[in-house]
Amino acid sequence: MIIAAAVAAAAYMAWVRYVSERSIVIISTTDMHAKVDNFPRLATAIARCRDTVATIVADAGDRWTGNAYVGMAREPRRPVIDMMNAMGYDVATLGNHEFDDGQAFLGHINSLCRFDIVCANVVSDTITFPQPAPYKIFCRRGVKVGFVGVVTNYDHNNHPAGKDESFVGLTFPDPQQTAAEYAWLKRRCDVLVLVSHMGDDMDARLAEKCTAYDLILSGHTHNLVDTLVNGTQLGQSGYGAKQIGVTHIRMKGTKIASLDYRIVPLDGYEPDPHMAQMVDELYDNEALNRPVGESRRILTRTGLAAWETDAMRRSLNADVAFYHYGGIRFDSLPDLSISAAMIYSLEPFSSSLYSMRMTPAQMRRMIISKYNDTANPKESHRIDLFSTTPYTIRVDARGEAVDVVFPELDEAASYRVVMGDYMYKNYRDVEAADVVPEGVLLTDILIGDLRDNSPIDYSNECRQRIERAE
């Protein structure tokens, strides 16, 4: 009887594995940037899915940077991890912003994750950052689902965007090449997924030449993507946990019968009470909630850039100030009353300032180099360098910058210029004399300027322009 029962059990398991029809759902997020306000609805969506079908929850990176309450918590960044643990995430890869506080911090925070961190194209030669696994295989209802992780190295100096000192002892092989090298995993899995933080454009290039992946869950570019590339489903669910990716995979034995990806907005879900309480407790912070000043109008990114650069110039008694597009984390102010939390969320990188002397010719070269930047195309061919001094970028028929006109500067003079440390250290062709690290934080300057000059009054008209050269 025991032998018969064993035979029957083995037959049943074989039927489940090789014959039966089963469904798996993968819920995916990316570029959440600590927008925990949306986590209560996210928690409800995950719980409802788990109640009805075998579910795997995955994240494609950039879990923090962008919320002062998270960045300045008693244990910085940890609230996001605690909430993801509570929601039952299964697997995640690294984004560039995971490294914002340095590799030692990231090595510690990764140890608190009750989900697997996978990243195949980071190689660690330092004990402060334990080597992550390149992949993880999950088994759900007899279905083997493999996840390979990769992170971009295309942004700056062959590592993810960030300060060079955060990456000492780490190397980042090309993510497309590395992902293709793990195609052999397809033989060990029924479904092979790439959870990628290199951008949907780079993921599409990979899919054109590598057909091993059944699904690519993309991140980094903040786009909404639902497309098929060379037979591979490519999906990306945007920014800030406002939407999720839902992939329904129907299996017939070990074969994929259908794979359907869709983007689902979270605003139709009721908030989960327990997660809502966690968020409320995080936001109960008197120091961050206290208003510092106000603005006469809702400022867009260009208005914020005008204020920030003016504040930098005033604070250090400079002639010209520059700040970069990516360092301004708001598309617009959320309110006319500006709290400390808003300042720290607007500028979450603890940026410090450098002063120096530059000629208009040196400023011109810096601006043209950034505008035509082929090494970092996501930040090129746009107004990236906001400034207190107006200027016009003149472009040729191909759309390449060929000149910069400064109507208020004397070409024969040199000027005291101030800019953020990220620009000075990472932008190419920054040439200057008398460079001084001022040792002051931009957030401190903004808070002081707001207190001295509230209400601030700026239009949202950009001081910089692009025009076609004759």
Description:
This protein is α/β, with parallel strands linked by helices and 470 residues long. The chain is 29% helix and 29% strand. The chain is built from 14 helices and 24 strands. The strands form six sheets. It has a six-stranded mixed β-sheet, with helices on one face. Strands 6-7-9-10-12-11 form a six-stranded mixed β-sheet, covered by helices on one side. Strands 19-16-22-18-23 form a five-stranded mixed β-sheet, with helices on both faces. Helix 5 links the parallel strand 3 and strand 4. Helix 6 (175-181) packs across helix 7 (200-209). It is globular and about 95 Å long. Residues 4-12 have low confidence and may be disordered.
| Record field, number of beta strands | 24
Strand content: 25-35%
- Global mean pLDDT: 94
Number of helices: 14
For the sheet with most strands, the description reads: 6 strands, mixed
- Indicate the structural class: alpha/beta
- Flag low-confidence runs: 4-12
Largest beta sheet: strand ordering: 4-3-2-1-13-14
Approximate shape: globular
Helix content: 25-40%
Please tell me how large the radius of gyration is.
Answer: 25 Å
- Cα separation of the termini: 92 Å
